[in-house]
Design goal:
globular, 256 residues, mainly alpha
């Protein structure tokens, strides 16, 4: 029987690395639709337009066909891409049975699903929050605080994920193969960081009136709010899998 070495756990002492509404039936995606109205109806489509380098904010009045022509894209293929993304958003994420997974499978799933999502999404949210605060703080004095909170949350989450991927999850995998030891301290630290992330996310909800855009919000602002609402939903599922499934089972096995 192998005992976990304390050296790994000392890493915890130092620093670390760094609802959307359902689209209405009236918002059919066609080449004649304007880019702006598509994002207004389905704000999370903004990330598709960003990947395609189509301006949906200041260029929101252009038709999809015109935007595709400027980017050298096939309109029919682009419509299919947008329809697939919209359908996936309506369906929501496919959930797994975390309780049916072993510890290694669950740690792998969390990294591949939730951590990968955060590594892609958080920089996008930070960039949009900064842009909206710079351009529209005259209209809403809360926007600079919102941008700062999003930046802080992103930094905290990258640090948190690094700790899990570099230290805790490797220990969990070792425990499943027979290693034993006390991992209560790093798990307690992770749970405290989950609580802090939840508090910051609650503050984001307060600053945005429940992630609800007002009538004057531009498409970038709407996309930001939709992204933050999606982040909150993912965070709840992410933390549930760790706090309520992975951590209790790993703690019990580590001292068995």
């Amino acid at each position: 029987m192998t005992w976990l070495k304390a050296g790994r756990l000392r890493m915890w002492q130092g620093g670390a690395m760094p609802t959307q509404s359902t689209p209405s039936a009236r918002s059919v995606i066609t080449p004649e639709s304007t880019v702006g109205e598509l994002v207004a109806a389905r704000p999370l489509l903004a990330r598709i337009f960003q990947k395609l380098e189509i301006d949906y904010c200041c260029g929101g009045k252009q038709t999809l066909a015109a935007a595709c022509a400027r980017r050298g894209l096939d309109p029919a293929t682009t419509v299919t891409l947008l329809e697939s993304a919209a359908a996936a958003q309506i369906a929501g994420p496919a959930e797994v049975d975390a309780a049916a997974m072993n510890l290694t499978e669950l740690a792998d799933h969390i990294e591949a699903t939730h951590h990968t999502y955060l590594k892609i999404e958080l920089p996008r949210l930070v960039e949009m929050a900064d842009r909206v605060a710079t351009k529209h703080s005259w209209r809403d004095a809360r926007l600079p605080e919102l941008a700062e909170a999003v930046s802080t949350l992103a930094s905290d989450m990258f640090s948190h994920m690094h700790k899990e991927e570099a230290v805790l999850f490797p220990l969990v995998r070792q425990i499943e193969t027979g290693a034993r030891g006390d991992i209560s301290a790093p798990i307690a630290q992770m749970e405290a960081e989950h609580e802090a992330a939840g508090g910051l996310t609650a503050r984001l909800r307060e600053l945005t009136d429940g992630f609800t855009p007002n009538a004057e919000a531009c498409n970038t602002h709407r996309a930001l709010l939709a992204g933050l609402a999606e982040f909150e939903s993912d965070l709840h599922r992410h933390v549930h899998k760790e706090n309520n499934v992975l951590f209790p089972r790993a703690l019990a096995l580590a001292i068995s």
